[in-house]
Design a protein that fits this description.
0% strand; 13 helices
């Protein structure tokens, strides 16, 4: 697919057709509202067991209907470890009492810097001036939110979610290096490498096999729905579609899209969990959206202005 492909006669961005933009928005909407699901499900499951169950249901039974993607086992292993353990295992642990869900949905967006940085280092991609400005504007909003932490947020929680953002950046880079493959199959098979370390960590630090088995038996239906939402909506749909977008476009174009995740995350947390949404959060959210708009639409607006004048 050419990076300048259009949808009909409308070209919203030289590298992001309208259909791809809508897909990106659907992904970040699922990811953003998911932080409420995580917080509620963690009332029934310890974090690393919760993460392990997520990837068990992402793997089974789908793996029996999906051929192994044409990529090395090493690539699958790194992706599975980065997303399963480094990103979600660690982030679940942080949300379980160390950081609020809304703020976690914000801090995880440090993945933008890591993803673009890795792309510049490994793929020799260049960072254009308007993209740097867009990220700077959006990050100003993120900084405003970070400066308004309270007793619900600890330094350890912040550090853990930043580490989760680093792991997400690693996963983005590895999936792009996998090339043009079936991303759903890729995510499913990579899940096999997430499960063993998550179960081992859970067995060592979360109570042993007997205790964990008892936890799964008494977990309410709502908690299991949360597990399935994690596995199917977030893992199978979200990360397969996200990896597909990254395989089609430069990282600097696609990576800023999840900056919308905090908007959905904070909004859902305010609505469902009663988290406060003061004016400074709204102002910060506006900056995040402004940065995303600049990144998506500046090239098209500049091109149209040249024709106009």
């Amino acid at each position: 697919m050419s990076s300048s492909k259009t949808l009909g006669s409308t070209q919203l961005h030289p590298g992001l057709p309208a259909s791809h933009l809508l897909l990106a928005l659907a992904i970040v909407a699922v990811w953003g509202t998911n932080f409420v699901v995580i917080k509620i499900s963690l009332e029934s499951f310890p974090p690393f067991l919760f993460a392990a169950l997520r990837y068990i249901f992402a793997l089974l039974p789908v793996v029996f209907f999906m051929p192994k993607p044409k990529v090395s086992w090493t690539n699958l292993c790194i992706y599975g470890l980065a997303t399963g353990v480094g990103q979600f295992g660690v982030m679940y642990f942080a949300i379980d009492g160390l950081i609020s869900p809304g703020l976690a949905s914000l801090v995880i967006q440090t993945q933008v810097f890591f993803t673009i940085g890795f792309a510049m280092f490994f793929a020799k991609e260049s960072l254009r001036l308007y993209q740097a400005v867009a990220v700077a504007v959006a990050m100003t909003g993120l900084v405003i939110i970070a400066l308004h932490t309270d007793a619900m947020t600890t330094f350890l929680g912040l550090a853990l979610v930043v580490f989760a953002g680093l792991s997400w950046g690693v996963a983005n880079t590895v999936s792009r290096r996998a090339g043009a493959i079936n991303m759903l199959s890729y995510v499913v098979w990579a899940s096999a490498f997430s499960i063993p370390p998550l179960l081992i960590i859970s067995l060592i630090f979360e109570g042993g096999a007997t205790h964990l088995w008892g936890v799964t038996l008494v977990a309410p239906m709502g908690a299991w729905i949360g597990v399935l939402w994690q596995a199917w909506a977030n893992t199978l749909f979200g990360y397969a579609a996200w990896g597909w977008l990254l395989s089609k476009h430069p990282a600097a174009i696609v990576a800023p899209a999840p900056l919308l995740v905090p908007i959905f995350g904070m909004g859902a947390s305010a609505f469902f969990l009663g988290e406060a949404l003061p004016s400074w959060k709204i102002m910060a959210a506006g900056l995040v959206i402004a940065g995303l708009v600049v990144n998506l639409f500046w090239p098209a607006l500049r091109e149209r202005s040249r024709h106009f004048f």
